[in-house]
Amino acid sequence: MKTLKSLMLGLALLVAGTAAKAANKIDGENLTKNFAINTYIDAMTRGKLSGFSEVVDQSAKFSMLRGTTVLSFGKTEVVDQLKSTKNTEQDCITSTSVVESNNDLAVVKVDMKYSTFTRSNYVTITNTGSGWKITNVYSVFK
């Protein structure tokens, strides 16, 4: 009887652990507009990278205007840079506003206001058929 109880407890823990792991899976159903933009904000302002790679499309382009020069980066370069500053909290106030939104595309302005300047990010999120993913980010410093 004691062996049966131990076996049942072990089986229950295995099932619970498997269910918990499955609940954290990021798939097309979880890749909503809000999830994508909140994951972007967490990565950029708090260094929280959980789910970031999944919400950024492989062909995503990140551009920023620095003076009169436009710098462009791919997904791999941005993810690598964010990994080097993982869990670093930015000293800024973040606000968002929807510029445009329809069933296929959304453009969200994410302002990161620091003490001496503001970084405005225009984040394009596209319905890729396998969920909403970030396809373009254009940053301007004011």
What does this structure look like?
The chain has 142 residues and is of the alpha+beta class. Helix content is 35%, strand content 39%. It has a six-stranded mixed sheet with strand order 2-1-6-5-4-3. A hairpin with a 4-residue loop joins strand 5 (118-127) and strand 6 (132-141). The termini are far apart. Mean pLDDT is 83; it is low at 4-14 and 16-25.
Overview features:
alpha+beta; single chain
Q: Which helices and strands occur, and which strands form pairs?
A:
Blueprint: H1 2-23, H2 33-46, H3 52-55, E1 56-66, E2 69-74, H4 75-84, E3 93-101, E4 105-113, E5 118-127, E6 132-141
Parallel strand pairs: 1-6
Antiparallel strand pairs: 1-2, 3-4, 4-5, 5-6
Which percent bin holds the helix content? 25-40%
What percent of residues are in strands?
Answer: 35-45%
Question: Runs with pLDDT <50, length 5+?
Answer: 4-14, 16-25
Spatial gap, N to C terminus: 71 Å
User: Please, how many helices?
Assistant: 4
Order of helices and strands: HHHEEHEEEE
Instruction: State the oligomer.
Output: single chain
Class inferred from helices and paired strands: alpha+beta
Estimated radius of gyration: 20 Å
Strand line-up across the major sheet: 2-1-6-5-4-3
Structure summary, number of beta strands: 6
